[in-house]
Every structure is written in C-alpha cells, then in structure tokens.
Amino acid sequence: MPDLRHWFPFLRWPRPDAALLRGEVSAALTVALVMIPQSVAYAGLAGMPLITGLYATFLPMLVAVLFSGSTRLSVGPSALSSVLVGASVLGMAQPASDQWVALVVWLALLSGGIQLALGATGSSWVLNLVSSPVLTGFSQAAALLIIASQLPALIGLEGGLATLWQHPRLDLAALAFGLVSLALFVLGKRFVPRLPMVLLVLAAAGTISYLSGYSSHGAVIGALPVGLPSLYIPRLLPWETMSALVAPALVIALVSSLEMASSAKIESQKDGKRWDANQDLIGQGMGKLASALSGSFPTSTSFSRSAITLYAGAKTGWATVAATVLVLIVLLFLTPLLFHVPRAVLSAVVVAAVASLFRPRTFLRLGRIDRVEAAIALATFGVTIASAPRIYWGVLTGVLLGLAHFLHHRLHPRIIEVGLHPDGSLRDRHLWKLEPLAPDTYALRMDAELDFASASALERAVVDHLAAHPGVRHVVLFAQPVNRIDATGVEVFTQMRGMLHDRGIVLHISGIKLPVERVLQRAGALDEGPLLKMYRTDVDALLAFGRLGG
C-alpha cells in the first residue's frame, strides 16, 4: 500500500462524510463561478474554439488533482499559459482552425511530457532555472500584451489597434458592453468580493444582448457544442513543424510549473506540510496530457483561483472532484446559455483578470534589492515585448541572463583579507580599516565552495598578495565557509601548498569542515609537516597568534 499511495496520491484522501462534502461542494461552487467564465475567455486568448476552454477545465482538472500532492490547486486555463499558446502557434495556422487545434494539442503533449518526465525523475530542481526576476519581467510584459490583444474586442473596434489612429470604426454597443462589464468587475472585486460578479455580469449581458437584438447582428459567443469532449488523437506533424514547437513547449512547461509552485507553496505553508514538487509536476503533466486527448490546449495552475479554493474552505481533493461535476453539468446542459453573451464581455473578463499582473513598481523594488537582477527583469520585459508574438524568447533570454549572472558569481567568489574587529569577530580588514591579524601574515576567507569555478580565484588572490607583499611568512586560511571541494579544488590547493612550502611560508588552516578535510586527506594534501598548522576553530587560531587572552 505505501507504494500505491506514492504513485496514486488520491489514495491518501480521507473518506468523505456528509460534513466534509458540504464544505467541499460549497468551496467548489465558489471557485466554479469564476473558473467557468474565465476558461471560455482564455480559450479565445489561446486562439482556440471557445468550448475547448471548458474541455481544458473538465478532465485535466480531475486528472491533475488525482496525481498531485497538492490537492487544492485550480488546474485549467490560465492567462500566461494561454497567451503563450496563442503566441507560439501564431503564423503557423489560422486561429481556431483544425490545423491550429492540432498544433496546440501537440504543444500540450510536449509540455505535459516535459513536466511528467521532470517529476518522475525527481528533477524539480530545474524550476530554479527561472528566477523570480525573469518571471516578473515576463509576466509584466505578457500582461500588457494580453490587454493590448483584447482592446479591439473590448471597445468594439473593427480591425486591429492600428486602425484606432487611422480610420476607426467602433461598434458602440460592444463598446458599452465591454467598458461597463470591466467597470463592474473592478468595482465588484473591490467592494463586494464575495459576490460572483463575473457570472452575474455574463448573465445580465447575455440577457440584454438577447432582448435588445444585439445577438442577431453583433459579436457574441454563439453556439457552443453540448456534451463531453471526444477522444482526440493528433496526427503526426512534419519534422520541421514539430521542431518549431519544442522551444515554446519548454517555456510553457517552465512557466506553468512556476505558476503551480507559487500556489502549491501557499497551500503547503498553510497546512504546515512539506511541498512535494516532483509529485505536483507529475500531476501537472498528466493534466496537460488529458487536455491534449480532449482536443484542448495546455493547462496550468491559476494562482487566483487556487487562492479562492483555499480560502473558500476546501480541505481535500474532493472539492476539485465537486468542481469537475459542476463543469460536467455545464457541458451537458448549460452551454446554450452562453450563446448571447457579447465577446466584448469575454474580453473584459480577460482584462480584469490580468490587470493585477501588471505591477511596474516591482521593477523599482528589484532595483533596491539588486540592480543586476532588476536589469535582468527589464531585459526579459523588453525582449518579450520586442519579440511578440514569439514571446517565449523573453523567458529564454531571461533564463540565459540569469545563468550568466549566477556563473559570474561562482567564478568570482567573495575573498577577503580578514582582521580582528573590536567586537571579537573576523571581518573585512580593508572595509573596516583593521590592523593585520599578525605581522608578516596574510589572513583570508573565501565565502564559496572550493571547486572548479572558484579554485583559481583563491590561488590568484594568494599569489597576488604575496607578489605585493614579499615579506609575508604566514598565510592563514579561515576555511569555515568552504563546505565542498572537488578534484579541481584539491589540485589547486595542492599546488598552492607546494608554492608556499617552496617559499618557506607557513600555511595555517582554521575551522575546516570534516567532509572537506577527509577529501584533502585522501588526496594526501594535508600531510603533516612543519609548514602546515591546523586549528579546529577560529578561536584556536586567534589564540595561536596571540590575539585573544588565555
């Protein structure tokens, strides 16, 4: 049974009783009132037939929760993933066409396969490749692009945004539907957050559209198929087409995983439990595969809907099962009710949902923390905007810049000459204007691992100091921060010790950690001799140099 519980997390769910089910159904109803309209709207954002938004909510949500460790994630269409889908396929087919659907299904299969493989192999560490500044820059740019893409439909503009400055033709009725709906969404979120404003506005707009006759000539949702999705088996694509989908699928998998992580961490912190990232990656991957086989687009985790699920009182995965039943009812009986809803209202749903993503002050906050990371966020933002519609290049650029920044830090570790501060601590001698630790002594500390990336920096620091101070007779290495050493580190350490020995300089090593000491001993780099002195603690070293009282 332990093995089955590992592979099938839903076996750990509690048996439902009447009290539990009442709370779970209530939470499911709360999130479904937001999820169903958003799913239809995000399908349009992905360029897919609108009904596929509900397909991407129905089975994927159920499959994902069955295989996830976090049971209250709202899996389905999300704004960032949907805009990535639409941008990735743009120019390769006509939106909502059969070819477009086939390409998007392959995106779901590829991105889902990537997440499934990462989770199954315990490789959730890959998520660390996308830093917070990269995601910040991308999400800010994506929010602006999403809003720009929805403006024509929101204000009833016939044609693209360029026509707004040339020969604008506006559908005044669509303009009224869009702006009034957007205002109601914003005001409702601020003043009556518990009210299902999205559903109420859709119902009211559909009723007005029908009674006024707008639905007979205006842009409305129109007829949606009734019933469950059919099994979709995608045909094989030419190699050139398939290879063009690999980079977008990788970015979709990474962005989706980070959306999942932001929600799952909140759930695990609230419950006081360890977050199983690998299991959640498996669940996300399985959800995408289910979406693909339903003929829909890649799903993700909605942070806002997950928060609603959590704070509406959901306790277990049974809330998601109940939400699935509600979506099933909509698919079987209620899709005709959406016929008369103006598309301008759907655009208002999208704009209201993504407007909260655009927070330009985040760049200023990053600048106060680290200017380089702020620059990475701005570069990601700029490349995302400039590369539109291929916005996945923004994420890839940010990842490469982040890795370059990381490697620069690893290749240039912090190495300081230390002195004894009046408070008894060892600090940067030059920063605090301290006296040398002892006459003819070079005392240094490296705050990094002693490996292939940092070893040459340590050797260079010692050699440069000896060249500038030929009278040095003692080198003291405070090794407490060094928690790992590799073969390159051992080689450089051995060479450095040999150089000091040839010059008659005593090497003092203080506070070396046992794993590092054992590696150096096995390599014969710590053989005893008159020119090597070891101290277990920094206090012992300071006593040896007469810097502390007995």
From TrEMBL:
Residues 439-545 form the STAS domain. It is a multi-pass membrane protein. This is SulP family inorganic anion transporter. The chain crosses the membrane at residues 46-67, 74-93, 99-118, 125-148, 168-187, 199-224, 244-264, 316-334, 340-357, 369-385. InterPro entries: SLC26A/SulP_dom, SLC26A/SulP_fam, STAS_dom, STAS_dom_sf. It holds the Pfam family Sulfate_transp. CDD domains: STAS_SulP_like_sulfate_transporter. It is found in: Membrane. PANTHER family: SULFATE TRANSPORTER. It comes from Caenimonas terrae.
